[in-house]
Structures are given as structure tokens and as C-alpha cells.
Amino acid sequence: MITLAVDAMGGDSGLDVTVPGAVAFLKQHADVRLIMVGDQEQLASLLKAAGAPMDKVEIKHASQVVDMDEQPQLALKNKKDSSMRVAINQVKEGAAQAAVSAGNTGALMATARFVLKTIPGIERPAIAKFLPSKGSHTTLMLDLGANVDCTAENLVQFAVIGSELVQALFPQNGRPRVGLLNVGSEDIKGTTTVKQAFKLLKSADLNFIGNIEGNEIFSGEVDVVVADGFVGNIMLKTIEGMVKFMGGAIKQEFQANIFTKMGALAALPALRGFKSKFDPRKFNGAIFLGLRGVVVKSHGGTDAEGFRYALEEAYHEAKADSLVRIEQGVAAQLLVLAEKKQEAENAAMANNIE
């Protein structure tokens, strides 16, 4: 049985979204139970009204709620009984295999990092998300905003945890192909940090395919895209904006006159397929990677269907036992990197002696 802890109060709409999303999720899975964290009276009433299978739900009361615009450090200090904090505590205490929240991103990251700590060998957690790409393939991209300034070592660590997650979720696909997001494919391009990361990644025990450019993210030829949080967040917001713009532009063109409206009827199946493939709700659920626990962040403004997909993301990670695999993979990868570093230092010392 998979148990997920849900911050029921978080997000722009709170209970109006989390409760119906949770109920829809529960009805689709027989092997799952939820710990719904928030105002006990409201939760009990709304869950019952929504027809929730109460034998698969535990309600855990929390007296506080983290506001969407609240400063992360203030939330961490002053909201120790918030629905967000209590949900994450369930993971730390072993009562749940993952926590899901649509709440304040900064507060969620700060709280998750404080409560759960990072995996040994990982300095900073990263925000990761699966994006659609060619065919039925998906590509994991990280970091998407948690770390604006990164060292080369941080980028390598992101590559390791991203690769291990994809390997855990999709073992049938072989070793994940890792690409470093850059302004060109040549190893001489990019910032000093990116060029240093390139050298380190070449020596790591990863399926590193080299630098990739932004137009290759959706090619289906890379499984993990690594970037610092500054570049990654801008890339993500650009993608989201472009999809929204394209959808509106297509709708406007088909509504231009009677002939385009008739064309829209003929193209309706294709348009529905396009809309379904790029429906942002299907890719709702960013993963906080590098923590000693699974935490999934839902978009704060999503609807019940989108929140259900965030729960699905947490469910798949928990079922694949991804955290254990990531921890084991990180330990092995970092050992290889340490050995490579020692070899390089020994070679440099020998050259100096000569």
C-alpha cells in the first residue's frame, strides 16, 4: 500500500482543488491511501460530500496555513503546525512515502530541506520536471529555479540525481542520456562553470551525450537536461508561455471566418490530440530532487485534474522506490567522481615532481 501525505490547504484555491483532485485520484488506485492534512472539520465535511472512500483516508489536523506570498524563512520559523510542515513531517516519520503540496514554492523547498535534509553527497536539492517530447517520450529537466547560482559540482550532482530518477522510473529504457544545456554543442562554449561541468560530466559514470541546445529538449534524443536554476526557470516559463500563445493563436485563426471555421471542424480530431498532448495539467508536479524524502510540488493555480496528476507523479515515484535507488546511485556515482579526482591530482603531482 502506497501512502501519500497531502497538504490540503495549499495553493491558490486550497480545499476547492485538493479535495476533488484527491478523491478522483483515490478512485483510480486500489493500492493507495492518503493522509489529508489541514483543517479537520472542513476536510471531513468536504471529503464526505465529494464521495471519498474514507477507509483510504486519514485526516490529520493542522492549525496553520502558509500563505502563497509568505517569506520562506518566516513560514519555516512561525508556521510549525502548518498543513505544509505537517505533511512533510509524515514523510520524515515514515508514515507516508511522499508528500504533495500546491503551496508556496519557496516555503515548501525551505521546509522540505530543513525537515528532510539532503541525500549524503548532494549539496543542494533541485526542482525537476518531466516535459513532453517527440513521440511518447518525456524528458526530465532540472534545475528549474531552486538554485540560481550553481557550481560545476552542483550541476554534476543534478545530473546524477536526475539520471538515477529516470533510471528508477523507466528501467526498461536503458541508461538515461544526459545532456548539459548550453549555447552550443561544442565543449569550448558556455560560461566557465558550464565548461567545468562538461569536463566533470565526461569523467562521471553517466551516459553523458554532451552539450545540447534549447531546441533539442523536445527531440526525444535526451532523457535528462541539466541547467542551473536561472537558465532552467527561464526556459520553463518560456515553454509554458509559448504553448499558451500557440493555443490562442490557433484558436484565433480558426475563428477568423466561415471557411476557417469549417476547416476547424475537419481538423478537430488533430486539434484535440494536440491539446491533450500539451495539456499542462498532465505535466503538473515538479519534483524536489536530492532530499531524503519524496516531495512533489503542484502548480499553485492548477485545477482538480492538475492536482490529481501531481498525486500521480508522487505515486509513481513512491511505487518505484525511487528514493532508495537515487541514494544508492548517488553514492556509487560520487565514489567514481572522487576516484577520478584523486587520479587527476596524483597525475598532476607526479608531473610536478618530474
TrEMBL record:
GO biological-process terms attached to the record: fatty acid biosynthetic process; phospholipid biosynthetic process
Main location: cytoplasm
Subcellular location: Cytoplasm
GO molecular function: phosphate:acyl-[acyl carrier protein] acyltransferase activity
Organism: Neisseria wadsworthii 9715
Assembly and interaction partners: Homodimer. Probably interacts with PlsY.
UniProt name for this protein: Phosphate acyltransferase
Gene for this chain: plsX
Gene3D superfamilies (UniProt xref): Isopropylmalate Dehydrogenase
Job description of the protein: Catalyzes the reversible formation of acyl-phosphate (acyl-PO(4)) from acyl-[acyl-carrier-protein] (acyl-ACP). This enzyme utilizes acyl-ACP as fatty acyl donor, but not acyl-CoA.
Family (UniProt): Belongs to the PlsX family.
Pathway: Lipid metabolism; phospholipid metabolism
Keywords assigned: Cytoplasm, Lipid biosynthesis, Lipid metabolism, Phospholipid biosynthesis, Phospholipid metabolism, Transferase
Pfam families: FA_synthesis
EC number: 2.3.1.274
Catalytic activity: a fatty acyl-[ACP] + phosphate = an acyl phosphate + holo-[ACP]
InterPro entries xref list: FA_synthesis (IPR003664), Phospholipid_synth_PlsX-like (IPR012281)
GO cellular component: cytoplasm
